[in-house]
Amino acid sequence: MYRWLTVVTIAALLGHPSFGNAANHSPTLERIAESGVFRVGFVPDAPPMSFLDADGTPKGYSIALCRHIAVKVRSVLNREDIKVEYVPLITPAERIAAVVNHDVDIECGATTVTLSRREQVDFTLMTYITGGTVLSTKSKPIATLEDLPGKKVAVITGTTTEDALRRFGKLNEFDFTMLKIRTHDDGMRLLDEGKVDGYASDRAMLVGLVFRSADASKYLMVRRIFSREPYSLMLQRGDTEFRLLADTALADLYGDARIRRLYHDWFGRFGEPMSPVVEALYEFQAVSN
Question: What ranges make up the beta strands (E) of the chain?
Answer without folding.
Answer: 37-42, 45-46, 50-52, 58-59, 83-88, 106-112, 121-123, 128-130, 132-137, 152-156, 177-181, 198-202, 219-221, 229-236
